[in-house]
Amino acid sequence: MTAMDVAGILNYGLAKIADLVTKYVLAPVVSLRANPTVIEEINQDVAHVTGAVLKLDPSVDPKGNRVDGEIMYLNIVRIIEFFKKFLCFDNGSWMCCFGRLTWPRMSDMIISNFLAKVVPDDASKLAEFQEIRKLTIDFETALKKLNFIPPSDDNDAKLSKFADNVEVHFASRKKVQILARARNMLLQSNFSLPQNYTTRTSRVNKKELAENISNDVVLLFSSEKCVVSEAAKQLMELVHRTLKDVCLLPPKVGLEFYHTARNALLLYEAIIPVKLQRQLDSINQAAVLMHNDCLYLSQEILGLAFEYRPYFSSSVKEVAIFIDLAPKFQLMAEEVLQCQIQLVMSNLKQAIDGANGFHNTHQIKQFESAKFCIDQIAFIIEKVHIIWEPLLLPSVYQKIMMMILEAVFSRVAKEVLLLDDMAAEETLQLQRLIHLLFEHLSSLLESLLAVDEPQEALNDRDHFILSIRKLRKLAELLDMPLKSITAAWESGELVDCNFILSEVEDFIRAIFTDTPLRKECLFRIENSNIR
C-alpha cells in the first residue's frame, strides 16, 4: 500500500479492490444474503505474521426477503472496520481513498435495497419511519468516525438526506401507485351494461332497473340522472380519496397528492378516446357512456373546490385549481354527442336518398323502393331510441331526438313538395307512405310530446311540432279538393302548419291540371293577405 501510495497509483489499486468488495462482500450483506465473520489467524509460513480472513456465511433470515436495517448497518460497520484495520492499517488518508471509491455504489445499494422499500405506504406510518431515520444517521456517523466518509462533507450523507426527505419519497411512491391504479382501471374498463338495461321500453322498467345499476348517478349541478361507466365512477372515487388525504397530509406531500389527483383525471382524456376510437365511429352504447362520463366528470370537477379547498393547507390553496379541467370534459362530451348525431343524420340522409325523391310511387317497383326507405328510416330511429333513451340525460335525449325527427319530417315534406307532376294514384301512394312513417314512429312521438319541456327548450319543441303538423297536413292535402286547399290557405291554416306561398302554389300546379278553376284558385292565393 505504501509503495502504491508513493508511486501515485493508490487510487488505481484501491479501485480494483473496492469494485471486488462491492460485488462480492457488500452486495450480499446489504441484501442480508450473507453474514460476515472476522477471523484473525497466524500465518504459519511467515513467522509471527498475523493474517485475517473475512468470512461470509449464508444468511438464514426467517424474515425472507425483508431487510433488517439494524442488522445490515451493524454488519457493514464490521466490514468497514475490518478493511480499515487489515487493508488500510488504520491509515486515515488510505481509508478516505477507499471510502471515496466504495461509498457511492454502496449508498445506492442501501437506498434501493432497503430505504426505498421501507418508505411508508400510508401517511399514518410516517412516524414509524423515524426509528429507521435514526439508525441511518447513526450508521453514517459511525462511518465518518472510521474516515470512510469525510466528516465535514454533508454531500456524502446520501442516506441521511434520503431519510430526511421521506415525506417526498412517500408522496412520490403514492403518486406512482395512484396513477398506475387509475391507468389500469381505465385500460381494463368495460363500456357496456347488462343487456336488459338497453332493451327495456317502459319508464317503469327503467326506474326499477336504475335502482339496481350502481353506475346510475345524479349530476352534481342537476337533478337529472344518467348512467356512467364503471371506470368514470371508480376514477372519481379515487380522486376523492386522494383529495381527502391532501387535507390531512403535510403541505409538501399534500401538494404532490393534489397534482396526482389532477393527473389521474387527465388520464381519462388521454386513454379513453384512444381506447374507444373504433366505437366512436359508429352508433353504439360505448360512445353514449363516454359522453355521460365527460358530463359527470366535468360537474364533479367543478364541485371539488367547494368540497375540499377550505380544508387544504395555505400553501396548497395558493396553487390548487380545478375549474380549468371542467371545460375540457364538457367539450369532450359535446364532441362525442355531436359525432353521434352526425352519424345518425348521415344514415337517415342515405335512407331518404334511397327513395329517389319519391318519384313515380304509383309504379309498384318505385313504391316498394320508397316503402323500404320509410322502413329503414323507422329502423334507424328505433335503434337510436333503444340505445340513447336508457342512458342519456332525459333533457339531452329529448332535445336531440326532437331535432333528428324534425330533420326527417322536414326532409320528407320537402321531397314531396318538390315533385312537379303527380298522378292521382301517385298522391294516394305518397299519402300512404307518410301515414306509414307516422305509424312506425307513433309510440316514440307520443312519449316525446307527453314530456313537459323546460322554458329554454320550448323553441326546439315548437320547431319539432311544426314539422309534425306540416307533414301530417301534407298527407291531408294529397287527397284534398282544390277549393279546400285554397280555403285552408286563406284561413291561415296552412301558414300555421309552416307552409309558405311558393310551396302551396307549386303543390297545386303539380297535382291539378291547368284549368280556369286552378287559375282562379292560384289568383286568390296569390292575392290573399296571408304570407
What does this structure look like?
- Mean pLDDT is 86; it is low at 200-204.
- The strands form two sheets. The protein has a two-stranded antiparallel sheet.
- Strand 1 (34-43) and strand 2 (49-58) form a beta hairpin.
- The protein has 531 residues and is mostly helical.
- The chain has 22 helices and four strands.
- It has helices spanning 2-7, 10-30, 69-86, 92-113, 129-145, 158-164, 166-187, 203-212, 230-248, 251-275, 285-308, 314-317, 326-353, 364-388, 394-417, 424-440, 442-449, 458-477, 482-490, 493-496, 501-511, 516-526; strands at 34-43, 49-58, 216-218, 225-227.
Give keywords.
rod-shaped, mainly alpha
Précis, in short:
The protein is mainly alpha-helical and 531 residues long.
Which class of secondary structure composition applies to the elements?
Answer: mainly alpha
Strand content: under 5%
Strand order of the largest sheet: 1-2
**Continuous helix count:** 22
Shape: rod-shaped
Helix fraction?
A: 55-70%
Q: Quick one: biggest sheet?
A: 2 strands, antiparallel
CA-to-CA gap between the ends? Answer: 114 Å
The low-confidence parts are: 200-204
N-to-C series of helices and strands: HHEEHHHHHHEEHHHHHHHHHHHHHH
Q: What is the count of β-strands?
A: 4
* Average of per-residue pLDDT values: 86
* Integer-rounded radius of gyration: 41 Å
Describe the secondary structure blueprint for this structure.
Blueprint: H1 2-7, H2 10-30, E1 34-43, E2 49-58, H3 69-86, H4 92-113, H5 129-145, H6 158-164, H7 166-187, H8 203-212, E3 216-218, E4 225-227, H9 230-248, H10 251-275, H11 285-308, H12 314-317, H13 326-353, H14 364-388, H15 394-417, H16 424-440, H17 442-449, H18 458-477, H19 482-490, H20 493-496, H21 501-511, H22 516-526
